[in-house]
């Protein structure tokens, strides 16, 4: 873990000196310097005191870089196409196990000629248009604002049944670190 670097980065971002932290926590400057350079590991109680002095939750000091907030600006989204129908997929953001995307389905297009399955659980919100979805023996039509979810390991299919493009917000949860194939 790189707790010391986290402490130093937060302290500098907030324009707090080592002396100010030491004054509030009672720690020596030498000790805090060693903590910030990862040369010593403080106790949980000491980390709690440092977190209070920095005005951040203790848990925030313990986060790895990949666990912190990840920002994707609208004009920086990765855009791909999926399937023979060339569905437009805008990748919004992701964590280790959850991905969110906007999928644009042209009129009459679908996720494939036949239902398909893959790892994960999906939650869908129809943002625009009208779609038909089926999974096994279940099927339904959905309009703007409607939502549905399913376990993607059961074969499923989604089709745009409206006159214009349909846009679906999809969140996919997978237990593995490997990105699953949604749409």
From TrEMBL:
Residues 7-61 form the HTH cro/C1-type domain. One of its GO terms (cellular component) is cytosol. Keywords: DNA-binding. CDD domains: cupin_XRE_C, HTH_XRE. One of its GO terms (molecular function) is DNA binding. Gene3D superfamilies: Jelly Rolls, lambda repressor-like DNA-binding domains. This is XRE family transcriptional regulator. It comes from Paenibacillus mangrovi.
């Amino acid at each position: 873990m790189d707790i010391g670097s986290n402490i130093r980065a937060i302290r500098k971002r907030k324009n707090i000196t080592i002396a100010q932290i030491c004054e509030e926590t009672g720690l020596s400057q030498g000790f805090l310097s060693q903590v910030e350079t990862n040369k010593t590991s403080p106790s949980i109680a000491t980390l709690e005191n440092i977190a209070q002095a920095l005005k951040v939750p203790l848990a925030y000091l313990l986060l790895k870089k990949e666990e912190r907030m990840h920002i994707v600006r609208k004009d920086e989204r990765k855009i791909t196409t999926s399937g023979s129908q060339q569905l437009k997929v805008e990748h919004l953001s992701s964590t280790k196990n959850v991905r969110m995307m906007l999928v644009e389905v042209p009129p009459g297009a679908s996720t494939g000629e036949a239902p398909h399955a893959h790892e994960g659980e999906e939650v869908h919100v129809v943002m625009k248009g009208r779609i038909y979805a089926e999974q096994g023996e279940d099927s339904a039509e959905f309009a703007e604002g409607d939502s549905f979810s399913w376990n993607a390991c059961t074969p499923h299919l989604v089709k745009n049944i409206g006159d214009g493009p349909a846009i679906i917000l999809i969140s996919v949860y997978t237990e593995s670190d490997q990105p699953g194939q949604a749409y």
